[in-house]
Design goal:
Elements (H helix, E strand, L loop, with lengths): L1 E2 L13 H7 L3 E2 L20 H9 L13 H14 L3 E5 L2 H10 L7 E5 L4 H13 L3 E5 L4 H7 L4 E7 L11 H10 L3 E5 L4 H4 L9 E5 L13 E5 L1 H15 L5 H12 L1 H20 L4 E5 L9 H7 L6 E6 L2 H11 L4 E2 L9 E3 L11 H7 L5 E5 L5 H12 L3
């Protein structure tokens, strides 16, 4: 197979993101196909026993077994590398496989992890419940409080982990400042960048050592398949991630990789349109008498507006808001919506709403949810590709039911 030639003589990294999202990483077969080829195969044929041996020893580059090397998956990984500005990437079956692998693979019993408290429920489970079972201790801190990050660091701290913006309250953490604290203590920083997307935020450029995505969200963007990806330096990927994935098997399906490649082609268009819609709806909801609190990273009243301005190129496709009247009022609002659909996903072309206290964060105690700002009336909204005025009308009518 041959690597795609991006038009003109520019190196691929010199092109703008929209161009890289269309051309990056393509491997064409002898047939010269326009669309990326889909290689639905478990294994590969070798011309000789000697070549097979050379492949397994790494002396002959090529594909071995689709659990850890497949042409379609490799195209997806390379396109993400070019978009993110990373040195290397590995794709995984799901976003949580990416998070768990990125955190767990480099660690050993006796190591220590510091993470922000504001995490997706499953991410918090990995840090708070899973790691200690294997002798890896963890400390949760207020992500905004740099003193807490500093005080939590120990001689055996190997990893720091955060989301920014956070799920579901859209708080923004100072990635550069936390990266400096982590590096000063001899640790690495891993950032979950799902809510910002690679269109609006580049954690590696801000000092992070690795970035993870649930490709299920904006990267697919149309509710079709699951996937995840880890991006970092070549050393980190080769030393820690590749072997872990090869031996434990949370592999991305080649079919899912092909779907995600198609999703990447329109990622920038979708995210920009969804962000514009979210911003317009946020402005309306912020003035609504039945909303007690609204959080949107693109507004000047965001609690960390100065950090947003410093590290993000745009707002978000998501809004968080609190409906007066608690759970009952929130449920009445959700049930009255006609366009926005109730689902625990996000980043879809269809607008989605969820009630975090009873879904994504239901395993947390009421006290912990209150500490994180996840009230009983709190709703998370993910903007789709509908006309913004239709969505504004939908929410205005639904809030009358609250």
């Amino acid at each position: 197979m041959s690597e795609a030639k991006v038009p003109s003589s520019k190196p691929s990294h010199a092109y703008r993101p929209e161009t890289r999202l269309v051309h990056g990483g393509v491997l064409r077969s002898q047939y010269g196909e326009t669309s990326e080829a889909l290689f639905l195969t478990q294994g590969f044929i070798y011309e000789s026993a000697e070549q097979c041996e050379a492949r397994f020893t790494g002396h002959d580059p090529g594909f071995l077994y689709s659990r850890f090397s497949n042409p379609t998956v490799s195209m997806f990984e390379q396109r993400m590398v070019e978009l993110e500005g990373a040195e290397a990437a590995r794709a995984t079956a799901t976003g949580m496989a990416a998070v768990t692998t990125a955190i767990l693979a480099p660690l050993r019993a006796g190591d220590h992890v510091v993470a922000a408290k504001a995490l997706f429920g499953s991410c918090r489970y990995v840090v708070e419940d899973l790691l200690p079972r294997y002798g890896i201790q963890s400390t949760l801190v207020d992500g905004h409080d740099l003193d807490q990050w500093q005080k939590a660091m120990k001689p055996n701290t190997k990893t720091c982990f955060l989301e920014s913006p956070t799920n579901p309250t859209l708080d923004v953490v100072d990635i550069s400042a936390v990266a400096e604290i982590a590096h000063r203590g001899g640790a690495r920083l891993i950032v979950d960048n799902v809510f910002a997307t690679p269109i609006w935020q580049s954690p590696l450029a801000l000092g992070a050592d690795a970035v993870v995505y649930s490709a299920t969200k904006h990267i697919d963007g149309q509710g079709r398949c699951l996937g995840g990806v880890i991006l970092s330096s070549k050393d980190f990927i080769q030393e820690h991630i590749h072997t872990f994935l090869r031996q434990t098997g949370p592999a991305m399906s080649p079919f899912n990789a092909w779907v995600l490649l198609k999703g990447l082609e329109t990622l920038s268009l979708r995210v920009k349109a969804q962000t514009e819609t979210a911003a317009a709806l946020a402005d309306v909801l912020a003035k609504h008498p039945k909303i007690s609190r609204l959080v949107y990273p693109g507004r000047s009243d965001h609690p960390q507006a100065d950090i947003v301005k410093k590290q993000m190129r745009g707002g978000s496709t998501l809004i968080g808001f609190e409906v007066k009247g608690g759970k009952a009022a929130a449920f009445r609002t959700l049930n009255a919506l006609k366009l926005a659909k109730i689902s625990n996903n996000l980043g879809d072309s269809k607008s989605i709403v969820t009630h975090p206290a009873t879904t994504t964060h239901q395993r947390l105690t009421p006290e912990v949810r209150a500490e994180l700002g996840i009230g009983e009336g709190f709703i998370r909204f993910s903007a789709g590709l509908e006309h913004r005025d239709d969505l504004i009308e939908d929410f205005t009518a639904a809030l009358e039911k609250a």
